[in-house]
Design a protein that fits this description.
It contains 8 helices and 7 strands, in the order βαβαβαβαβαβαααβ. The protein is α/β, with parallel strands linked by helices. The protein has a single domain, classed as Rossmann fold, CATH 3.40.50.720. It is globular, with a radius of gyration of 18 Å. It binds NADP nicotinamide-adenine-dinucleotide phosphate. The site of NADP nicotinamide-adenine-dinucleotide phosphate has 29 residues, from α1 and β2.
């Protein structure tokens, strides 16, 4: 019998001071797991951990700071005794506009945070715990990594690369460690504000599910991938987008009435 119960498991969630990361920490804690939440600021990490409660731990660590990441992994092991789940959630998008208008600084920041950080944190978690004991890694990609959009080319390329990397790492870390990705559609968070704040009505009208995503929609899928219920799932990218990738649902809708 496999369940979504995470009692006795410990998760590190990068970029968990708000949005999808914080919702994920709350969902893993609700499933019985211990959680370590990172942020670039200790104050924000502490505030988020306090919101989760149940002994959650907040640790300041810029996602690309190798020393801070190592200290976070060590503190997690000291406090909870294992690292069974790693959610590589921290992400950034400093580059808006056509790809050829971007500079190296924006390219480097995008790819460092969105692609290098998942490699860094996974390698540390594997070295410290998962290599001997197994575990589940979940990388936060995006439906942008599965298609093409104006102005988001660099960000989307970093997420496409993360989807590829997820499969590569699933092979390299097999059979003890499962590595999967989530590809969310537009979710109500600060990072994506430009995509939904002024367009929510239009998105609601055209999306099959009739709404934009909430952080908890993504968190539920992460709990599944982290749990034993997903023990035969690896190298996969789960699209969680309320049907956004299906196209404009309004063109398909008609009055649905029951035929008695
Ligand atoms: N929202 C969407 O529609 C959407 C869609 C597809 C994919 N995603 C992905 O989902 C992930 C979470 O984003 P979100 O939408 O939840 O955004 P958000 O609400 O703005 O949260 C971003 C989180 O990442 C942290 N963070 C940012 N840069 C960091 C860094 N360099 N090191 C450590 N932490 C960092 C922030 O913490 P501090 O500011 O406290 O450091 C914050 O906790 C990202 O990977 C994003 O690309 C989001």
């Amino acid at each position: 019998m496999t369940t979504l119960d995470l009692t006795g498991r410990t998760a590190i969630i990068t970029g968990a001071s708000r949005g999808i990361g914080l919702a994920t920490a709350e969902a893993i804690a609700a499933a019985g797991g211990n959680v370590v939440l990172t942020s670039r600021s200790q104050e924000s990490a502490d505030a988020a951990a306090a919101q989760v409660g149940r002994g959650a731990l907040g640790i300041a660590a810029h996602a690309t700071d190798a020393e801070a990441a190592r200290r976070c992994v060590e503190s997690t092991l000291e406090t909870f005794g294992s690292i069974d789940i790693l959610v590589n959630n921290a992400g950034t998008n400093p580059a808006y506009g056509p790809v050829i208008d971007q500079d190296h600084a924006r390219f480097a920041k995008t790819f460092d945070v969105n692609l290098w950080a998942p490699i860094l944190w996974t390698s540390l978690a594997v070295e410290a715990w998962m290599g001997d004991n197994g575990g589940s890694v979940v990388n936060m990609a995006s439906i942008g990594g599965l298609g093409f959009e104006p102005n988001l080319g660099l960000y989307n390329a970093s997420k496409a690369a993360l989807i590829h990397l997820t499969k590569q790492m699933a092979l390299e870390l097999s059979p003890k460690i499962r590595v999967n990705a989530i590809a969310p559609g537009v979710v109500r968070t600060k990072l994506a504000a430009a995509l939904w704040q002024e367009h929510e009505e239009q998105l609601t009208a055209t999306t099959a599910s009739g709404r934009i995503g909430e952080p908890g929609d993504i968190a539920s899928a992460i709990v599944f991938l982290a749990s034993d219920a997903a023990s035969w799932v690896t190298g996969e990218t789960m699209v969680i987008d309320g049907g956004q990738r299906l196209g404009d649902a309004s063109e398909f809708r008609r009055e649905v009435t029951a035929r008695v």
